[in-house]
Amino acid sequence: MRKLDRYIARNVLGAMLVVMVGLVLLESLFAFLAQLEDLRASYGVADALLYVVLLIPKKMYEFIPVAALIGCLAGLGSMASNSELVVMRAAGVSLWRMVGAAMRPALVLVLIGVVIGEYIGPSSEQTAETRRTVARSSEGTYTGEGFWHREGNEYMYFNAVEPTNGIIYGVSLFRFDDSMRLTSSAYARRGVYQGDHWLLEDLKRSYFIDGRFETVEKKVERWDTNLTTTLLKVVLVKPEGLSISGLITYIRYLRHQGLETGEYDLALWTKVLQPLTIFSLMLVGIAFVFGPLRSVSMGLRIFTGVITGVVFMLVQKLLGPSSLVFGFFPILSVLLPALVCLVIGAVFLKRAA
């Protein structure tokens, strides 16, 4: 029996890994073609290729649930097509034992997800975004997508960030009073972190006094703020690209500043509940093979898996922003689709038993 368990698990896991590699390569190809449309003198083909390669861990993490579903359908489906599952059941192997063996690879995917999501993905994405922004610069002028941040009544914008080196480029600061009226603005070519404060270089600051602006220029000025290089690593990456520990740290920081945390709460629950998402989609895939897709072609099984995975992701992406707009708990937008999949899978398996 243990040999049969290992055989089922090996087939399912192998199919999952093949599907994941295929999805990541396809997505990376499209991402590389998109980057080619934005080439310039300081951002060449090699830079675009490196950018796409550094984002591969993030794409792997995002595709784990869908790869689990499609791989499960493909792995068990090939066994069903060869009548191996029928022979196993005729030999006295129970349905639930085969389900348990097919679910074991989920533990491997969960482990892969934890390693990538917590350690590899966030750092590689930070490196990719930093290198891309700096590489697209020209003669010290930084352009492209910048990064906004707020601390109290002060709004900050950075053209480029190198958190590892503690350097920010193109720093714009806008300070407002309690009535949200602009009191001063400043622009610095560069900021360098000094451990407990920043030094802004080539600073030009304007004060709004009595209906007019007064401008002061300084070569170097000290800037005291709670923004550290650790927090910069968080600001640099989109919420879905952060690790669980990074999300928790930044959520606490935002709450301390009295700011909204909904977007980061949603990303946190999506990551925390990813193991449940993987198990629920795998259960649906297993139920499809033993139920309505027992005797169909492999192509139809894979097509069904792709459609189911796309629908699942769309529902999650629609419920996520809806939780921010209508104010219900972000955890529900992640939990409900997974629970629906668990119920569907359980119902199909019960009918097949």
List the helices and strands and how they pair.
Blueprint (H helix, E strand, L loop, with lengths): L1 H35 L8 H10 L1 H26 L2 H7 L4 H9 L1 H31 L11 E5 L2 E9 L4 E10 L5 E12 L4 E12 L2 E12 L5 H8 L7 H13 L5 H11 L1 H17 L7 H29 L3 H23 L1
Antiparallel strand pairs: 1-2, 2-3, 3-4, 4-5, 5-6
Helix pairs in contact: 1-2, 1-3, 1-5, 2-6, 3-6, 3-10, 3-11, 6-10, 8-9, 9-12, 10-12, 11-12
List low-pLDDT spans.
none
Strand content: 15-25%
Order of helices and strands: HHHHHHEEEEEEHHHHHH
- For the termini, the CA-CA separation is 19 Å
How many individual helices?
A: 12
Indicate the structural class.
alpha+beta
Strand arrangement across the biggest beta sheet = 1-2-3-4-5-6
Explain how this protein is built.
The chain is of the alpha+beta class and 353 residues long. The chain has helices at 2-36, 45-54, 56-81, 84-90, 95-103, 105-135, 229-236, 244-256, 262-272, 274-290, 298-326, 330-352; strands spanning 147-151, 154-162, 167-176, 182-193, 198-209, 212-223. A six-stranded antiparallel sheet has the order 1-2-3-4-5-6. Helix 1 crosses helix 3, helix 2 (45-54) packs antiparallel against helix 6 (105-135) and helix 10 (274-290) packs parallel to helix 12 (330-352).
